[in-house]
Amino acid sequence: MRKIIILPFAEQDIRDSAIHYAEKEEGLEKQFLAILNQAFLLISANPLSFPLVKIPIRKFVIKNFPFNLYYIIEDDIIYILAVFHNKRDPQVWKTRKLR
After folding, report:
1. Fewer CB in 10 Å around end: N or C, the chain?
2. What are the domain boundaries of the chain?
3. What angle separates helix 8-24 from helix 28-45, to the nearest 10 degrees?
């Protein structure tokens, strides 16, 4: 399993989404975060299994919530670029850089 580093803008995506779901329905943010944790485990175990959307960025489709997770593999580390709602403008996450 590879190490995962969640970059600051992806951390903000997660926080914003968790707050949204907490306001929408009690306990929904916990479900969202649990599914994200499962996604991180799957990506960590099989990072090359998920499709490239733009070299070197890969996409993981999150089940039960309308989100995609975008990441880059560099050496033995997986960097999470975005946890992005499907209806948001993809140009936002496409401008994100690893460094």
Report:
1. C
2. 3-94
3. 150
- What is the H or E stretch that residue 99 is in? none
Cα 87–Cα 94–Cα 38 angle in degrees, nearest 5: 65
Q: Which residues pair with 72 in a beta bridge?
A: 57, 79
Residue 23 CA to residue 11 CA, distance in Å, equals 18
Residues 65-89 pLDDT 10s: 999 999 999 999 999 999 988 887 6
Instruction: Domain 3-94: give its CATH architecture.
Output: 2-Layer Sandwich (3.30)
The structure tokens 């960590």 sit at 44
- 79: β partners: 5, 72
